[in-house]
Design a protein that fits this description.
The complex is a heterodimer. Chain A is an alpha/beta fold. Chain A has 22 helices and 10 strands. The longest helix of chain A has 23 residues, at 14-36. Chain B is globular, with a radius of gyration of 18 Å. Chain B has helices at residues 14-19, 21-33, 49-56, 61-71, 82-91, 99-108, 112-119, 139-144, 160-166, 189-192, 194-210, 221-233, 243-251; strands spanning 7-10, 37-39, 76-79, 109-111, 132-136, 172-173, 215-218, 239-242. In chain B, helix 12 links the parallel strand 7 (215-218) and strand 8 (239-242). The relative contact order of chain B is 0.15. Chain B has a 4-stranded parallel β-sheet with strand order 2-1-3-4, with helices on both faces. A 4-stranded parallel β-sheet of chain B has the order 6-5-7-8, with helices on both faces. The longest helix of chain B has 17 residues, at 194-210. By secondary structure, chain B is α/β, with parallel strands linked by helices. The chains are: A alpha/beta, B alpha/beta.
C-alpha cells in the first residue's frame, strides 16, 4: 500500500489518530522547551553538523583509525557490506558460542537488516529488552518509531497484551504494575543469555571505544551479564574524538524526548577478562548514499526521532504508514536510496513545511532532500499521464496567451458546471473542501480595464 | 517612495489572478498608498511551483525563462505569496543565457510583507481594523523566507506581519495553541494525500475556532483557499482575508 492509502486508513480511527498526534506533539513541545533552555543551542547544532560533515568527507580514514584502535583495545572487528553479511556474521558468532538465546537492545540497524527473523529462522531465540521493543516484539510488529517503538499503542492495549503474554491481572492498566511485570520477565532472559547484541550510537575513532545510549539501562544489563557482546554499527556512526561526544550527548536526548540526557551513556572500550566484544561495521547502502551528492548528508542522522515528532504527517499517519524501517521525514529521504520503487510515495508524504529541517540536531536539510527525491522519482517511475500534464502546464505557463485562455476556461467552467460534476468523487480537492467562488474577472482583466 | 523611486513590479500568482483578484487589487492599492510606483507587467503567468513540487522541476525551464524575462527590467518584484516568492528564489532551474538576470531576480523579489518592513523600512502602519484576527503562518513564508521566528528554533521571537497588524487600532491578535503548524495544503499534497491534508486543515481551523478567531489571515492564499474550502464545507463561521486586504482596508 502507498503512503496515502495507509494514512487514510490510520485516520479512520479519528480518536486514536488525534491521541497519536497529541502524544507526539507533547514530546515535540518538551523538546522545544528544553532546547530553549540552552542559550547556545543553535551553535551546538551548527557544531554537530560540522563535525558530521567532516566525518562524511573523511569517512574511510576515520573508520580505519577506529578499527586500529578498537583492535588495540582487544575488540574483534568485522566488516559487513550488506545486511546478509551482517546477519551471517552475527549467526556465526552465536554458533561459535553454542548460543541459542540472545538478548538485544533496540537497534535500528538490526531492524534494517531484519536480524531477528533471520536468527529465529536459524533456531535462535531473540529477546528485545527495551520495554517498547519487547511490546512490539510480542505483537510481531516492527517498531513504529525509532525512539518510541510502541508509541502507536495505548496502555489498555498493552495491559491486554501483558495479560496474555505475562499473565498480568486482566484490566490492570497501571503503568508501574505493567512495567514491573516486564522487568521480572526480562530479568530471567538477561540471566539466561550468553550473548548480548546492541547497536551503537557513537564510535570514537581516536580511542576505538563506542557509546551506547539508553534510558532503561537494558544494554548494560545485557552486556554485563553475557560473555559475548556483539555491537552492530552503521559506518556513519563515527565521531573523530571523544570530546565530540560533549556536543552530541547534549543534543541527542533533548532532541529525542526533551530530556537533558539519556539515563545511561555507556562507553565500551575493551572486554573484561574472559569475555569478548565484537563490533560489526555495516555498510548496507551507506556508501551508495554517500556517493549521491544531494542526499549524502542524510547520513549525518543520529536517530533522535525529532523529525518524526514534529512532522504533521507522521503524527497523523503513524510510523507504519511509511512501510520502511526508519519512518517519518528522515526515513523518507533514506529509504528511497535503498529501494526507490518500493518507497516512491514517501518523498510525497510531506507538505515540504520544513519543520523537520529546523528541529534536526545535525541540520540535515530534510525537506529539501524530499523535494530532490521527488525529482528522482518522476524520472524513473515513468508516470506517463502525470508527466504529460506537467509538460502541458509548462506549455501553458510559458505562453501568456495559452495561460489566459486556459484560465478563463477554468473559471467559466466552474461557473457553469453543476456541483455534482465539480465535486465528483474522483476530484479529491472537492471531496471535503469547497472551491472558491469563481470571480467574474481575473486580476489581469481588472487591471487592463482599470489601470492601463 | 518619491517620484524618482525605484520601479516595483507586481507578481500576482496564477491562482490569485484567477480566483482572488481582490487580493491582487489590495496588494496594488496598498503599495500605492505606501508611495510606490507599481506596474503589473502584462504577460506574466505562473512561477511553475506546482510542477516542480510534483517532481517535474525539469519541465519548468520554459516557465522560468518566461518569468525572468518578464521581470528583468524592474528594480523590485513584489508578490503577495511567500510560497511563490520562495520558489523563484530557491527552486528555479538554472536558465542558460540569463544567469545574470536570474541572480538579480533572486535578490530583488520580495514577499509583500517583507518588502514593506525590510525594503520600505516601515515599522508601523497607522490605521484601524477593529477585529479579532488569527494569523496563519505559511510554512514557506516562515521557515523559507524567515518572515517570522519558528517555534523549532532557539531565536528571539519575531513576526513581521504581526508587527504591522498589531499596530492597527482595534485589532485583537489571537494567540493560537500551535503557532506555526502546517495547514496541510502543500500543493499537490492537497490532492495526493487528501485524507491527511483535510485532517491537518481541520486541526488548524479547530485551533482558530477554539481561540475565537473572527478573521483568519495569512500571507499565502493557497493555505487560505484550502482552509476556507474546508471551513465553508463544514459551514464554519470564519472569515478569511489576505494580509494585503486587511492592511489595505485599515489604511483607507
Amino acid at each position: 500500500m502507498t503512503h496515502p492509502e495507509n494514512a487514510a486508513e490510520f485516520l479512520k480511527d479519528s480518536q486514536k489518530a488525534k491521541w497519536h498526534d497529541e502524544t507526539l506533539w507533547f514530546v515535540r513541545d518538551k523538546r522545544d522547551k528544553v532546547s530553549k533552555g540552552i542559550p547556545e543551542w543553535e551553535q551546538l547544532r551548527e557544531l554537530a553538523s560540522g563535525i558530521k560533515d567532516n566525518v562524511l568527507a573523511n569517512l574511510a580514514g576515520y573508520l580505519e583509525e577506529f578499527e586500529r584502535n578498537a583492535k588495540k583495545n582487544g575488540i574483534i572487528v568485522h566488516w559487513a557490506a550488506d545486511s546478509e553479511e551482517h546477519n551471517r556474521l552475527v549467526l556465526e558468532i552465536l554458533q561459535q558460542q553454542n548460543c541459542t538465546s540472545v538478548v538485544t537492545r533496540k537497534s535500528i540497524l538490526t531492524e534494517e537488516c531484519h536480524l531477528n527473523p533471520y536468527l529465529e529462522k536459524h533456531g535462535v531465540e531473540v529477546v528485545d529488552t527495551d520495554l517498547g521493543e519487547r511490546i512490539v516484539q510480542f505483537l510481531n510488529q516492527p517498531p513504529s518509531h525509532i525512539v518510541l517503538p510502541a508509541i502507536h499503542l495505548k496502555k489498555g492495549e498493552i495491559s491486554e497484551l501483558f495479560h496474555e503474554k505475562l499473565h498480568t491481572e486482566k484490566g490492570n492498566e497501571d503503568p508501574a504494575y505493567l512495567t514491573q511485570a516486564a522487568r521480572v520477565h526480562l530479568r530471567e532472559k538477561f540471566f539466561a543469555a550468553k550473548v548480548a547484541i546492541t547497536g551503537v550510537n557513537f564510535g570514537i575513532a581516536e580511542t576505538g571505544e563506542f557509546v551506547v545510549c539508553t534510558n532503561e539501562g537494558n544494554a548494560d544489563m545485557g552486556v554485563h551479564l553475557a560473555d559475548v557482546h556483539i555491537a552492530c554499527m552503521g559506518i556513519e556512526k563515527i565521531l573523530p574524538r571523544r570530546k565530540d561526544l560533549g556536543v552530541f550527548l547534549r543534543l541527542l536526548a533533548r532532541s529525542a524526548t526533551g530530556q537533558p540526557i539519556t539515563n545511561y551513556n555507556s562507553h565500551f572500550r575493551s572486554p573484561s577478562p574472559g569475555k569478548e566484544i565484537h563490533i560489526i561495521l555495516v555498510d548496507n547502502g551507506r556508501t551508495a548514499q554517500l556517493a549521491r551528492e544531494k542526499f549524502r548528508n542524510s547520513l549525518k542522522c543520529i536517530r533522535c526521532g525529532a523529525c518524526m515528532n514534529t512532522c504533521p504527517i507522521y503524527r497523523r499517519s503513524g510510523g507504519f504508514s511509511y512501510n520502511s524501517t526508519v519512518p517519518g521525514p528522515i526515513g523518507s529521504i533514506l529509504s528511497p536510496g535503498l529501494d526507490l520503487k518500493k518507497h516512491s510515495s514517501l518523498p510525497f508524504a510531506s507538505t515540504l513545511c520544513g519543520s523537520c529541517t529546523d528541529v534536526c540536531p545535525v541540520k540535515i536539510n530534510i525537506h529539501e532532500q524530499l523535494y530532490e527525491w521527488r525529482q528522482e522519482v518522476t524520472k524513473t517511475k515513468g508516470e506517463f499521464a502525470k508527466g504529460l500534464s506537467m509538460k502541458l502546464a509548462n506549455g501553458i505557463f510559458k505562453s501568456p496567451l495559452a495561460y489566459k485562455i486556459s484560465g478563463s476556461v477554468m473559471r467559466n467552467a466552474l461557473k457553469s458546471l453543476p456541483n455534482s460534476l465539480i465535486y465528483h468523487p474522483l476530484n479529491s480537492w472537492g471531496k471535503n473542501r469547497n472551491l472558491p467562488d469563481p470571480p467574474k474577472e481575473s486580476f489581469q482583466q481588472w487591471y487592463r480595464k482599470n489601470r492601463s | 517612495m518619491k517620484a524618482n523611486s525605484p520601479s516595483v513590479a507586481l507578481f500576482i500568482p496564477c491562482y490569485v489572478d484567477q480566483f482572488y483578484p481582490q487580493v491582487g487589487i489590495a496588494t496594488l492599492e496598498l503599495l500605492e498608498k505606501l508611495g510606490c510606483q507599481v506596474t503589473y507587467p502584462s504577460g506574466q503567468t505562473c512561477c511553475g511551483q506546482p510542477l516542480a513540487n510534483a517532481g517535474y522541476a525539469r519541465e519548468t525551464v520554459g516557465t522560468a525563462r518566461h518569468f525572468i524575462e518578464t521581470f528583468s527590467e524592474y528594480d523590485y518584484v513584489v508578490c503577495p505569496s511567500g510560497s511563490c516568492t520562495l520558489h523563484v528564489k530557491e527552486h528555479f532551474p538554472a536558465i542558460a543565457g540569463l544567469e545574470k538576470e536570474q541572480e538579480a531576480l533572486e535578490h530583488k523579489i520580495y514577499e509583500l510583507i517583507e518588502f514593506i518592513t525590510d525594503v520600505l523600512k516601515i515599522e508601523k502602519l497607522e490605521g484601524k481594523f477593529p477585529h479579532r484576527v488569527g494569523f496563519h503562518s505559511s510554512c514557506h513564508g516562515q521557515r523559507g523566507l524567515h518572515l517570522s521566528s519558528g517555534s523549532e528554533l532557539n531565536q528571539p521571537p519575531f513576526n513581521k506581519a504581526r508587527k504591522l497588524l498589531e499596530n492597527l487600532d482595534g485589532l485583537d491578535w489571537v494567540e493560537l495553541g500551535r503557532t506555526d503548524e502546517c495547514c496541510g495544503f502543500g500543493g499537490t499534497f492537497a490532492v495526493t494525500e487528501e485524507a491527511l491534508s483535510i485532517q491537518m486543515g481541520k486541526d488548524r481551523l479547530a485551533d482558530h475556532l477554539e481561540h475565537k478567531t473572527e478573521i483568519l489571515t495569512g500571507g499565502d492564499m493557497s493555505c487560505i483557499m484550502h482552509l476556507q474550502g474546508i471551513a465553508s464545507r463544514s459551514k464554519q463561521e470564519l472569515k478569511f482575508l489576505h494580509l494585503a486586504e486587511i492592511l489595505n482596508q485599515a489604511l483607507s
